[in-house]
Amino acid sequence: MGIYPPKEFIQQANVRDPAIYSRASENWVEFWEDFARELEWFEPWEKFLDDSKAPYFRFFVGGKINACYNCVDRHADMRNKAALIWEGENGETRTLTYFQLYREVNAFSAALRELGVEKGSRVAIYMPNIPEAVVAMLACARIGATHVFIFEGFSARSAGFRLKDSRSEFLITADGYYRRGEVTNLKEKADQAIEQYGGIKSVVVVRRAGIDVEMVDGRDHWYHEITKKGYTEPEILDSNHPLFIMYTSGSTAEPKGVVHSTGGYLVHVYATSKLVLDLKPNDIIWTTASLGWITGHSYGVYGPLSVGATVLMYEGAPDYPDKCRTFEIIEKYGVSVFYTVPTLARMILTCKTDSYDLSTIRLIGTVGEPIEPETWTWLYREVGRERAPVVNTWWQTETGGHVISQLPALTPMKPASVGKALPGFEVAILDDGGKPVKPFEIGNLVIKRPFPGLMLEISGDPKSYVKFYWSKYGKRVYFTGDSAYMDEEGHIWIVGRVDDVLNISGHRVSLIEIEQVAMGVKEVREVSAIGIPDRVKGSVIALFVVSEEASEEVGRKITEKIERDIGKIAKPGLIVFVPELPKSSGKVVKRAIYDAVVGKKKPAFLSNPEVAEMLMKIKPSER
Ligand code: ATP
Ligand code: MG
Questions:
Q1: Going by C-beta distance under 8 Å and a sequence separation of 6 or more, which residues neighbour residue 18?
Q2: What's the short name of a Pfam family annotated to this entry (predicted)?
Q3: Interface pTM (ipTM) of the complex?
Q4: Which pTM value belongs to this model?
Q5: Distances (CA, A) of 103 to 110, 138, 248, 303, 398
Q6: Whose CA is nearest to atom 14 of ligand 1?
């Protein structure tokens, strides 16, 4: 069952032989080592895996490598090839060839060293999607500094939390950035964040928006003034040297500072870029995620550049000034691999795709949240025109790269399923006692064997590392926190977070399923379902709905559809129409809604302050 990958695609795919699965399961070490050997190492590893200190797993032990060297130097003689094509929201464009990127990274690495950045320093990057942000990441990687990227849309308070939690000593930022036609003063937010924390020694500011900003004498430096010419020797780093810290989205709890390695991480994203995204050197990949999200790191920078492909990068809102700008960009640059999130797809679903030449697209990928069959089918039919397979990739900040997905030339696609565990991975769905569940039974998704992209640790918080991931099933089985089921053919379907499965009068009700059904009502543009405490029933389902037509009539339609498609048990106790949902890295932050409604705490992640007021006024138990 399922939709078979298009023939033209199969013929040119990186992976066409189904034996890859059995080969990888017979010899998983060789499977990973073969990919590792395609990268350049200064010294080979002595041991593939050291698991003697489980749950701290170390890969490619003894190997010496540099991620920047593999992404940039290795390709620098391609002086006629774009590493990065950038478009600003205001229409500006820039291209950096591999050689120019090499030059720029070398020069900025030297500037950082002069400021006192050393191997092991932690450098925060609070920046919009502009080329210098990629240069900054790679320059840190070159000199062995650990970068900590902070999404530019975060408030000063959220940025301050991350600076402090990661104990960053340096900060790279920009004067401002464009979003929906307006310029935000980022430097001002950065200054407030620095003030909250107090541990930042030097600040580098990139001029992007050309606005007036205050520069603190002795502490702040303009990027263009300190970046001169020169070559900087890449540091020879241990495979398990921390490349970066990335905070989880914070959808369910406080964001966690996930620390990733250099060697294992790079091997993982390099391999999966080839296996899953089918990347080749002549591709232009557009990963629509911001750099401040793990997807931006793994498949917007390190994966594609290690393969030698071209990265397309866009600064602003993908639906501004024209709702269909996404398609203008794909057409203009001939994007061949389009990697995006369901939220964006839903935003542009009404665009007339036949007004654009989208014939260059040969693969579509989605990530980050469940995708409903309607949106999946639209991507497959209207965007990819049934020529491009759609891969639905499941992974997490903590896993560094893809874990579960279709292999685009091999796995029949079932709309909304995430396919199977990738070769080299062992995934299972267990009940609370640790036994595998039967097909179609919902259970906890686990990964039974470590893999190279697995995080090294949670920054400064060994207790959480063990508690969240390695307590439920012991020190060798990674607990993902997601629930899922498998169909009779072994395809996996993500049901949501373990917490998204509510127990209502003994029935398991999935909040994601409710959301997907509600999305089937024509007037519903976005919806988030959460369980909130109720004086009478213990817990009720509350729906927060974005709709152009906020009316009782629409509310009734939603309730009726849920009762019809799932059952009376899933009937929402509360439907609230809101102009906007709180989001981080494109996905809804349910914790923020919960905190506003139940805890009366003002949510971050909202661009519209009225929504915060509205959410805080809701009195869940007095309906
Ligand atoms: P936090 O861990 O702080 O609560 P988060 O889990 O949202 O935040 P991420 O690491 O960005 O942070 O997201 C990983 C999660 O996203 C997964 O655990 C899963 O719930 C969801 N997810 C990722 N890819 C998919 C997918 N293809 N289908 C369904 N859900 C997905
Ligand atoms: Mg998570």
A1: 410
A2: AMP-binding
A3: 0.99
A4: 0.90
A5: 11, 12, 32, 20, 32
A6: 396
